[in-house]
Amino acid sequence: MYLREAVTEDNVELQNLQSQCPMGTSLIVSIVNTPDFFARAKVHERHKVYVVCEAGRIIGSGAGAVHEAVVNGQLSSVGYEFQYFTSPNRRRQGVAVLLHQHIEDYFRTENVVLSFCTILEDNLSSVRFFETQGYKHHRSLVMPTLPIYKKFDVLSEEKIRSAKAEDLEGVADLLYRTWGSCNLYEPYTAKSLARFVGRTQAYGLEDILIFEDQREILACLSRWDYNRTRRLIVKELSPKLRTIALLADFIRLVRPMPQLPKPGINVTRWSLTHIGFKHPRYLTLLIKFVNNQALEKGADQLYFVCERNSMLLNAIQGLFHTNVDIHLYVKPFEKELSPDTPVSPATIDP
Questions:
Q1: CB neighbours (10 Å) of residue 262?
Q2: DSSP state string for 97-150
Q3: Distances in Å between the alpha carbon of 218 and those of 4, 113, 319, 343?
């Protein structure tokens, strides 16, 4: 068993292995990075993807990225671990430990002050693994998911448009005003936003939406079509979810209701990122606008990640949504995150 850095030629083998590693317990899904396995890692400007091999075959993979982000009021290098998966017949045999050790070695060469990861609420095996590697639970975030099932009236729709290159400085400024005092905020400039657009698959300036009045940007967000970079197929629903789905089918006979995904369905999701606003009501207009676009395109869901008491949640009051817990785990190298300072959603991987 040996480790090496992943290369482009590993694309298909990594996708095949990823498809064998479904996630979740209440909603079991298969997520495969396609057509380019490395597209998710490329979102991060400084990243490494590693694979563990045996007898010439890949049996596991994991990734790490380094960001310049705010830690307790100071800009510092931080590491982010993500996208771990191991061949089902090689779990609990040291594959993930080997990956983690090399990702940490990469972080140390980049002088990170801490490392963090995010774990879905029911992924107990990942919780146990990262706790054994020195990670501690910092706080629980929430991932609201808005099902796309009806059209909304959008007031002042004429004030919503896609961003242009000359808008990026204003977008970066609004992001700073919204999240600049938060931990893990990654400061953006017009140039760094342009680089993000350039390296991110299925994403362009047309996907950055702004709401403006008298040439002032009052809210912004990005819509990222998850399905164009990662295919999510439902494998199985828990008995509780199956019961809820049957109830929703019955209610739908008399009024509009969201539809739960069924096994075998490829769920199309749009991630909402780069969210900034001067007041939640402006953001509400943008979210309703994106909802209507998603409805026209046949997408199933919108989602984002935020704090449990974030003002972001005020923007979706009255809109049907379900919440999933996202646990933030942190391992300090030189610094610990202050427990009293909110965390920015801007650095959380979509």
A1: 11
A2: HHHHHHHHHHHHHTT-SEEEEEEETT-HHHHHHHHHTT-EEEEEEEEEEEE--S
A3: 46, 34, 21, 22
Query: For the packed helices 190-199 and 168-179, what is the interaxial angle rounded to 10 degrees?
Result: 100
> What one-character DSSP code corresponds to residue 162?
E
Contact status, residue 305 vs residue 345, Cβ threshold 8 Å: yes
| Separation CA 192–CA 204 (nearest Å) | 14
212: buried, middle or exposed (CB in 10 Å: 19+, 13-18, 0-12)? middle
Using an 8 Å Cβ cutoff, are 121 and 326 in contact?
A: yes
- Over the chain, what is the mean pLDDT? 92
Residue whose token pair is 């299925």: 202
d(CA 71, CA 185): 8
Residue 221: closest CA among 267, 179, 158: 179
Q: Which residues pair with 211 in a beta bridge?
A: 160, 219
**Element holding 33 (H helix, E strand):** strand 27-33
Residue keyed to tokens 């769920």 = 267
- 59 phi/psi in degrees, rounded to 5: -120, 0
Amino acid identity, position 145: T
pLDDT, residue 200, reads: 93
102: left (phi over 0), alpha (psi -120 to 50) or beta: alpha
Number of other residues whose CB lies within 10 A of the CB of residue 108: 12
What pLDDT digit, counting tens, does each position of 100-139 carry?
999 999 999 999 999 999 998 878 889 999 999 999 999 9
Q: Angle at Cα 275 formed by Cα 295 and Cα 210, nearest 5°?
A: 70
CA distance 256 to 103: 47
| Residue where the block lists tokens 């590491």 | 79
- Would you state the structure tokens that stand for residue 300, as one six-digit string? 């199933």
Question: Is this prediction's pTM over 0.90?
Answer: yes
Q: How far apart are CA 247 and CA 196, in angstroms?
A: 42
Name the nearest CA neighbour of 278 among 225, 199, 214: 214
